[in-house]
Every structure is written in C-alpha cells, then in structure tokens.
Amino acid sequence: MRAIKNLSRSLAIFKPLGYFTVIALVLLSVSRLILASLYVNRVENAVSWSEFFLLGLRADIIQVGYFTLIPLLVLLPFITILHKPAAQRWWRRLLTLWVLFDTLILWFMEVSTPAFLAQYDTRPNRLFFEYLAYPKEVFSTLIHGFAGWLAAGIVSTLIFIVISYRCFRTTEYRFKPRAVSRRYVMLILPILVVSSVLGIRSTLAHRPANPAFFAVTSDAMVNSLILNSTYTVEYALYNLKHEAAANTVYGDLTPKQVVEEIRQTPHLKQLEFPFPDYPTVHYQQATRTRLRPLNIVIILQESLGATFVESLGGLPVTPNLERLKQQGWWFENLYATGIRSVRGIEAVISGFLPSRARSTVKLSASQRQFFTLADLLKRKGYQTEFIYGGQSHFDNMANFFVGNGFDSIIDQDDYPNPKFVGSWGVSDQDLLNKLHQRLSQTSADKPQFTLAFTSSNHEPFEFPDDQIVLAEQPRNTVNNAVKYADYALGEFINRAQQSDYWENTLFLVVADHDTRVYGDELVPVSKFHIPGLILGADIEPRKISAVSSQIDLAPTMLSLAGVSAYVPTVGQDLSAPTMQPANRAMMQFGDNYGWLERTKSGEQLTVLQVDRSIQQFEYSPSSHRLTPIKQRPDTTQIKKITAYAMLPSILYQQRAYFVPELAIASQ
Asked: Which of 90, 241, 349, 505 is exposed most, by the fewest CB atoms within 10 A?
C-alpha cells in the first residue's frame, strides 16, 4: 500500500500535463470536426472519415508532445530535489502556467483558422506571421471581411483567459505538496520524456513524421485540415532556416547538372554564357531595332485572374480589357508563377522562377545586386520609378525596389488630394491619374521605366461611389471591385492614347495572381490562369495562344522595346520570330511545384512534391479537369522539370541572379 501511495503522490506532480494532454486532444479534435463540417464535400471526396480523424489525432499527438516535452526537459536537471515539498510547489506553479499558456495558443490558433481558410484555402502558414508586420491592412481586412469571426475570436479568447486564471487559482489552492520517494520521481520522469519523444516522432522510421506524412489526398486544403494550426505555423517558422535551399528538395541533381540541363532548353541552347559566376547570364538581341528605345510601363493588376475575363472562360466583368485586347498582344494561355503579389512582382519584374521559399522581394540576400528590369534599364540610361497606391513598405517592396534599380518610389503619402482612400490605399483611378501625370512629364532625351501596382481589387474591395454600374449586390464584392479596376484601366488607356507619350511607350497590363487561389487538386491550374496584354507604340494586334509564364514577359518586353542586353532570365522572348514557343508554365502552390506543358497529345501537368512521388495529369483547359496519367513519367522530361524547379534556389544561394558590371562594360 505504501508503494502505491508513493507512486500516486509522485504522479500527482505531473497531473497538469495529463489534464493538458486530454484537453488539448479534445479541443483539436472538436475544432477539426467543425472545420470539416464547413468543407464536408471536399473532405468526403478526398479521404475516409476514419482516416481523416485518426491521422488528425496522430498529428495532434505530435503537437502535444512538443508542449509536454519542453517542461520535462527543463525539469531533468532538478530531478534529484523534486521529491521535496517546496520544490514541488514551485514546479506545479510553473507547470500549470505553462500548460494554460499552451492551451491558450492552441485555442487562439484554432479560432483564427476559419477566416484564414476562407481567404487562403489552407490552415495558417507562413503568411500568418508575415502579415503581423502590417497590422493596419490586416486589421482593416478582418473588420470588413471577417468581422464575425474576429469578434468571436476576441470574445472567446478573453473568456478562455478568465476561465484559465480561475483554474490556475483553484489548482494552486487544492494542491498539497508532500514528501515523496525520489526513486519514483526519477523513474516516472524518464518514462514521460520517452513517451513525449515517441509521440513527436510518430513513427519508428528513419525520419520523423512531417506534413508530407499526412498528405494523403490530392486536395492540399484537406491535407492541411488533418493537421492543426499551431503545428502548421510552427513548421513554417522552422522552414525559414531552409529558405536558401528550399527547392533543392525536389531532386538530387548537382548545381552543375542543373545549369547544364537548363542550357539545353531550345531557346537557350544556341546562346553563350560567358560568366562562370553567373551561369544563366546571356546576351539577348532585341527583335525590334529602334533609334530610341521605348518607354516601358508595367501595370500590375491586383488579383485579376482569368476568372474575371469572359473570353478566358471567366465572368463578364472586364469589358475594357476585352475591348483593348483587340489592339495589342493578347495572351490567351498565360499563367502566374504563384499565389501572392510578391511572387507576381518577382516573376514580372525579375523573370525569376518560383520556389517554396519566400519571394526574393523579401529574402535578405536579394535586397541588393539582384536582377530587375529597373536595374538593367537604369544602367541603360532609363529613369526608373515605382508607383503604388498604398504604403510601399508593405511586403518589403520599397526596400527591394530601391536596392535593385528603382530611382524613385511614389506611394500613398504622395497623393495630395486623392479621389478615394480605402484600407489598402488610394483608388486605382488616383494611381493611374498619377501614372498619366508622371508619363506626361517624361523627358524626350531619357526613356522611362515604370511599374504601377494597383490595389482596389483587394479585400475588403473598397472603391469610389458612382463610377460603375454594380455587377451584383452587395457592393463590396470581388466582382464589383474587378469591374471598377477594369473601368479605371480603360479610362487611363483612353487618356494615354490621346497623349504624346503613347507612340513612344510600351505598356504591359498583367495580373500578379488570381484572387483566392484554391482547389482540391495538387496544383489548381485554372486558378493560375491570368490575362496579359501588351499594347502601345507600334504594337500590332496579335493573339499569343502558346502556354506562357510570367517569367516570359520581361525578356519579351525588353525585345519589343528595342533593348539588347545581357540578362540572367531563363524565360523566353516570345517576339523571336524563328523560335518555337516553349509552351510551358511553372507554378508554385505551397510545397507543390507544377509544370504545365503543351504536348502533341494535349496539355500535361507534372507535379513535384516534397518527400513524395512525382504525379502527372492530362489537363483539360475547357473543363479544368485533371486526369491522372498511369504510365511511368519520361525520365528526360522529369530531369528538365527538376532542373527548372531546383534552379532558383541554386541561383539565390550563389547570389548569381545578376548582371555583373563586366557584362555591362562589354556591351
């Protein structure tokens, strides 16, 4: 009896961990059930309910294991004194506070999840903590778009804190420390440590379980539901240290093999690469000869996917874009490289390939001496400028642009009397009026490069009154915001066509990405489809039917503007008359790398995954259907795709995506 009593007293020291384990597992399971009920059709189509919840429980045990292991490891050095009543009291206080804090974290993350899921079609990830740097914009979006969830989250968290405090006081009052056997404490503690470690590993295999272990369906959102939000955010934080090499996980090619494979691409095969430290830098001869190079203006449209362009299979809310496409080069099969604005900026301005890492707009090693059109053109004698309606510090844009070739930046503070100001800055009309004003002041002796980035088509979808006939009710919806953005664009182009600068300016209108990219496929191809239009100067009407990527736009614009130069881009100059289009596009969707290619038999999607096998599908653009291909992938094709997937990490690691001064001097 005495032995049993000593064992019971020894176990009492660790009771808070036991309570926490049970409460946490119940909390996470109930949250998963609620979330699954919101997306019941997608869950049922992707996985059985038993597998869904059992795998979810396994993922929750991993997270609970981390929270229990930490205090146990802290306790180990004090194991020899824990049998004393005074040590027990201090330990119980600290342990109770720890588990209450952990439970609060789990609660807060789960309460935050529904709004994040609605916006990004996944549980909280890196974006969750990245956006903490922009409280004004984020809070405004929550207020206007997710007020109910915000209120519920705040109230429930406050209630939880009050209840937790009372539990802590009650636990403190009831706990009566007693002298126990040191031998029992020294026996129990190692057992708990080992149990926590096994729970965290979740497998006896060589590698512990990770998110890929729970990716049992082709629906990335359902895979994320199997996990819990605390774990997904922690894993995103952990992965930050691997950012420089983020895409090397897709293959085992050496950097030399990757570069050699890339150089075998048809449009690069006949070129010379004279700079060993900059392996993709080559000379691009412009296809248009001009006495004076054209001004280049890029109007990057926020979230304007093919979803909103009727002739691309979308809604009829962009009549001006449909009208203007008859006047220039219209891209019928253009695809974004990612699902965020900085990814679009990276691809359009730098021609850089996508990766699992944060965009190079944010990464530290790309804030200086990283290729952009602005840097190249500035060294060619251009005046370079970025015009934005919001705060240019958002997403680190200002720092990246100033460090990589932009002479000046205009943002929200530079509009004296704006027509309209919303959560994300001034309206598109204000922005494009400013663009017109700046272009009208362009010097005849100095060509101009301008990037103008719109923001009206951003949740909470605020725009001026009485400018458009609403597409639907209520007013602040994405379809109405798109229609307003299209109206502002049409108004600007009409004015530009009557201006002196039109004949000397090349315009590119292109989306950064589609809005709310989601889907139940490994890569939802249709949500990467975006419009693109080149017009102005002497550009003749033309339809580009080839499958194209945002990375093809920079070399094409340079060539049409009459700028011959050394560039590091591996995108294709689509104006080259003798070169067949590559007919491919690459897309990064979370950890999945998609490669869409048009073949003789149709369009084919290849998906590279982390720690999982390669999958291939036949893609139908009309129905957006992906049909699995059962035969083994062609090894030559996979090697090429893998090289393209690995290249951005290699170039970033080696700081090799830049045109050296030696190349400029040799031109």
From this structure: 241
